């Protein structure tokens, strides 16, 4: 894998240190609704920030809380306590209507299961968030994204006519089309072969370097985490470590050490 190129960064302007998304004192408890319920502390007073125009991977053992963190940051789940900010907007206290609008307009999502609508073409799936918002696409930007995923010749095809890797690249384009504050990716390569995984991860990497995007990705794969600028390690609902400029070997070594501690 090629290391993360920096020459393509938009305008060669120094990256802002202001977080694209951050959380303060974030906790999430499951199963505390009735007396006698077994409670699970999924997030334990987490304070963390994600800089703009950077690619961050989150890793940890199964059950460590990394996906819960992603879902709370993205507004897909409400924290039990604490605050989440996206682009300066505090999200955890928003009404359902306002939160839905914020997710549609300012957050991009890429999931393992693709989540494409089977009756729509690839192009229609890509621009769906804009259609729902009553907005027209910025055609120049859309062309840049489409050329980035390398599927211009497949835009008229429906999902069942595309491979898994092609579907995931369509999902990535859909996540970027609104020019969101942040793209959240939850195990985006979990259902893909190694070639398709490299295509998807390479596109996410280029979206940061060339389009100035911010990407936060949960993954269990060291090779996927190596595409990021930094890796946050999660255990028992807390951030327990960080690794800058990761390689697959360094990530794997840290995960082995972390799993020994957890066990």
Automatic annotation (TrEMBL):
Gene Ontology cellular-component annotations: membrane protein complex; plasma membrane
| Record's signal peptide | none
Specify whether Chloroplast is a keyword of the entry. Answer: no
Domain ABC transporter: residue ranges = 21-261
The cross-references to CDD domains, in alphabetical order and at most eight, read: ABC_MJ0796_LolCDE_FtsE (cd03255)
Read off the Pfam families from this record: ABC_tran
- Keywords for this entry? ATP-binding, Nucleotide-binding, Transport
Provide any one GO MF term from the record: ATP hydrolysis activity
InterPro entries reported in the protein's UniProt record:
AAA+_ATPase, ABC_transporter-like_ATP-bd, ABC_transpr_LolD-like, MacB-like_ATP-bd, P-loop_NTPase
Q: Tell me yes or no: is ATP-binding among this UniProt entry's keywords.
A: yes
Name of the molecule in the record: ABC transporter ATP-binding protein
